[in-house]
Write a structure and sequence with these properties.
Elements lengths: L1 H11 L3 H19 L5 H32 L10 H15 L7 H7 L3 H8 L4 H9 L6 H18 L6 H18 L5 H25 L4 H5 L6 H15 L7 H13 L3 H26 L21 H12 L4 H7 L1
Main location: mitochondrion
EC number: 7.1.1.2
Membrane topology: Multi-pass membrane protein
Amino acid sequence: MSLLLGTTITVSSNHWMMAWTGLEINTLAIIPLISKSHHPRAIEAATKYFLTQAAASTLLLFSSMTNAWFTGQWDITQLTHPTSCLLLTTAVSIKLGLTPFHFWFPEVLQGSSMTTGLLLATLMKFPPTALLILTSPSLNPTLLTTMAIASAALGGWMGLNQTQIRKVLAFSSISHLGWMTIILLYNPKLTLLTFYLYCLMTSAIFLALNTTKITNLATMMTAWTKIPPLTTTLMLALLSLAGLPPLTGFLPKWLIIQELTKQEMTPVATTIALLSLLGLFFYLRLAYCATITLPPNSSNHMKHWQTNKSVHILITTLISLSILLLPLSPMIFTTT
């Protein structure tokens, strides 16, 4: 309830103090969920999360106070002072995990459970994204474009040599944030659409991984013995998150590249499209591990002789939507 309350307060506020209050409620609400398992890694993740979010909230409050000092405005949309704009971009980047402030996110996600990781990767990113969209006319285009390209590059590059699924999904999230940020100034509605579709696909993958108890590549290789249909559709959901054309994940990338081309930013569009190939490589590796019946090397994990056939209807719905939404793109074209 506190998570929903904090998110609602931040998204619906037009005063900086209320937005800051909502972000603080969110931070304090997620920390018990991260540290619930009482494992040393979980306690470490909760501590890292608290320190980074507290630093980001302090910067955000300092930014709004500086803007109010020089302009007399506490309205979120009236952020006009250059120093305040720079500080706000830094604060929101730390909260989201944009490069070069991404260091905390993979570690925190690795120390959390799958359900808490899902909240960190989706719901907790919504309030900072909303603040970025509200202040987008005042932000520096060069800074945002640089950070977006760096996020797409680092998310793909760092995800290549990971064996832990949660770390792979963390770097995937950083890469997708780059795509959302690069189009923010030119089409904020498209940023929101990308965020919604990212949340849909990530939720499907996290819930499927939670059901099959997959945590790393080795356990993914034997997951087909548990629920074969879910493992097969999980492969398609992973490829959809990668942005392959017949699937839902291709839609936001297609629209973003088209919008960047309209804005005469063809080199930027080409660069970020090429960088997404790095991410495609590790998604393909995950999809390969999810579907093979015999691992290429001997696995230490036991084969499951008793399979669980029941899958929650929510997972089925989310995976279906994350794979099959592309035919609805003409309708989304008209809304954006």
